[in-house]
Write a structure and sequence with these properties.
Blueprint (H helix, E strand, L loop, with lengths): L8 H16 L6 E5 L2 E5 L11 H6 L7 E5 L5 H8 L4 E6 L2 H13 L6 E5 L11 E6 L22 H9 L4 E12 L4 H10 L2 E8 L10 E8 L8
Parallel strand pairs: 3-4, 3-6, 4-5, 6-7
Antiparallel strand pairs: 1-2, 7-9, 8-9
Length: 234
């Protein structure tokens, strides 16, 4: 494989199927994962804290007192790191009941029950009319049919979740607000850029993980903002 080549679809499929099996095989009592020096507990069928969100967590900036909406929270890691940055309110959403259970546990374990609220929600369905200074999202990267809720953490059937995110996100963002959006080199990168620009946003990559070997998986984070009327989008 050339040094610049991406992993093949077959390689990514195999890796992701194995990870889904691992998520499902967690003991009922759960297991503890160490992520960026902190402990997170995950129950069966929850997406684990992993490298995919690290460029976002290492590079997003929350000002003291800002409000944060975390979409697709999984075990709650992005929401909890927003709490550590002294957000005044963090609302964490997920469709997966196992993820909700894990995120509730981790909010309590890290001492953020008074700041962080966890809700079961299909994207923005449970948000109401609240708006936020910052929205974070680690949605499934690949346009691929997902047979169950665990697969939906990695695969997005017909890219419906991502399309709906960009169609609706502006109504939950305060004026001057911003979005931090995780993605990968094996995902639908061009489609994400297109959807963001079509929805009236500027989008630029602000950080990425360093691939350990040529041609391997790489993760990054986009900073997305409402585009100026005559501004440039990256």
């Amino acid at each position: 494989m050339p040094s610049h080549a991406l992993p093949t679809s077959e390689q990514i499929d195999h890796w992701q199927v194995m990870r889904q099996h691992a998520f499902k095989s967690v003991p009922e009592a759960g297991r503890t994962i160490t992520y960026l020096g902190k402990k997170f507990h995950v129950y069966p069928n929850t997406f684990w804290p992993f490298l995919d969100s690290q460029p976002l967590v290492r590079n997003f900036r929350i000002q003291r007192g800002e409000s944060v909406l975390d979409v697709g929270t999984g075990s709650g890691v992005i929401a909890i790191f927003a709490c550590y940055q002294q957000a005044s309110r963090v609302l964490a959403l997920d469709l997966n009941p196992a993820a909700i259970r894990s995120a509730h546990h981790n909010a309590q374990a890290h001492g953020f029950v008074g700041v962080m609220e966890v809700r079961h929600s299909d994207l923005f369905d449970s948000v109401g009319d609240e708006r936020f200074d910052v929205i974070t999202a680690n949605l499934p990267f690949r346009d691929k049919p997902a047979p169950d809720v665990v697969a939906r953490s990695q695969w997005d059937t017909d890219f419906r979740t991502n399309r709906r995110f960009f169609e609706e996100v502006a109504q939950y963002l305060k004026p001057g607000g911003r979005i931090y959006f995780a993605h990968s080199n094996f995902g639908a990168v061009d489609e994400v850029r297109r959807l963001a620009k079509q929805a009236g946003f500027s989008i630029r990559m602000i950080a990425k993980s360093a691939a350990k070997r040529a041609g391997k998986r790489q993760f990054f984070v986009f900073l997305i903002k409402p585009a100026a009327k005559h501004g440039r989008t990256d």
